[in-house]
Amino acid sequence: MVTDAPSSAALPLLPWLELPLREALASQQAHAIWLHGPSGVGQFDLALALAQAWLCEAQAVGSQASPACGACASCRLVLARSHPDLMVLVPEALRESLGWNAGDEEEGGGASEGSSKRKPSKDIRVEEVRRVVHFAQSTSARGRGKIVVIFPAERMNTVSANALLKTLEEPAGDLRLVLAGSTTDALLPTIRSRCQSLRLALPDEPLTVAWLASQGVKQPEALLAAAGGQPEEALKWFREGMDGAHWLALPQQLMRGEVGALASWPIARVVDMLFKVCHDAMRAACGSAPIYFALAPTQFKAAPITLARWYEELTRLARHAEHPWQAALTIEWLVGQARVALTEPAPSRASLN
Ligand SMILES: [Zn+2]
């Protein structure tokens, strides 16, 4: 027998999403929503919270204007990722990190063919979208309608997106779709124009700093700045072993030419970090305050011309950051390049001629 657990079966909600959730429940009547904003602010969590509220059986059908009760059978099924009227489409490559593995794999059919051999797909593939079309035509199992969540919606390629068009144009009466993602431009206009737009803003810093601290993040301000203000990104980095102190020590480490823990980073992340160092050093050279390393003890003193050259080299490399280079050698080379750019004295007039 299922006993009432002391903890709620409502999906945990990021604190800055509470207001957008209530507003969306009160205002969103369309059958399809395009839920977007800067990446890493919780689009997927909000999409699921909306789905749970719409399916919640504690509220009268058609008047689900409050967040999910977190206690009814439907809420528990959503939390257990096994609600028969909820379909969640996320690319294979993201399923584990989003904690959304189970249901999709079982029903995967064609999607799971040969999946043990190939790399997990970063796209939402057309076979998966076809499952949505089939789901749209089925009958709601619990009589509260059906919900489809697609995230990140911009990962649908043209073929996948076109497969969804008909369902968007002529939706079954009891189907609602939430397309969630981070970049407005990447989603096909034909898809976007058929959805009601719901935009999430970057949350206020005090709220996100407090949330990161509650997750155990040390020096959350530093890591939040490192992640460009995106709290979920900051938390992801922390869970991958980065902390604020480590981030703030990076410029000095580079000036000494030490590879250290960078050796274990993916090249794309090293390049991203170097861009941030370069960016802040350029700001310092113009007399502006740094952004990503504002709390670092380092004073950047590099010459603008050296930094400009470094920036160009990084840009060239960034185009190929996914290239399967010898990672260790490449990172060593990148650190050496950073050391020179950050410490080389400004060239004399004579050497410029
Ligand atoms: Zn409920």
Short description:
This protein is about 45% helix and about 5% strand. It is of the alpha/beta class. β3 (about 145-150), α7 and β4 (about 175-180) form a beta-alpha-beta unit.
Question: What features would you describe in this structure?
Answer:
The chain is an alpha/beta fold. 46% of the residues lie in helices and 7% in strands. The protein has helices spanning 18-27, 43-55, 73-79, 92-98, 102-107, 126-137, 158-169, 189-192, 205-214, 220-226, 231-239, 244-255, 267-285, 304-318, 327-343, 349-352, and strands at residues 32-36, 86-89, 146-150, 175-181, 196-199. It has a five-stranded parallel sheet, with helices on both faces. The longest helix has 19 residues, at 267-285. The model is unreliable at 1-6 and 102-115 (pLDDT under 50). It binds zinc ion.
Helices and strands, with pairings:
Elements: H1 18-27, E1 32-36, H2 43-55, H3 73-79, E2 86-89, H4 92-98, H5 102-107, H6 126-137, E3 146-150, H7 158-169, E4 175-181, H8 189-192, E5 196-199, H9 205-214, H10 220-226, H11 231-239, H12 244-255, H13 267-285, H14 304-318, H15 327-343, H16 349-352
Parallel strand pairs: 1-4, 1-5, 2-3, 3-4
Helix pairs in contact: 1-2, 2-3, 6-7, 10-11, 10-12, 13-14, 13-15, 14-15
The protein binds zinc ion.
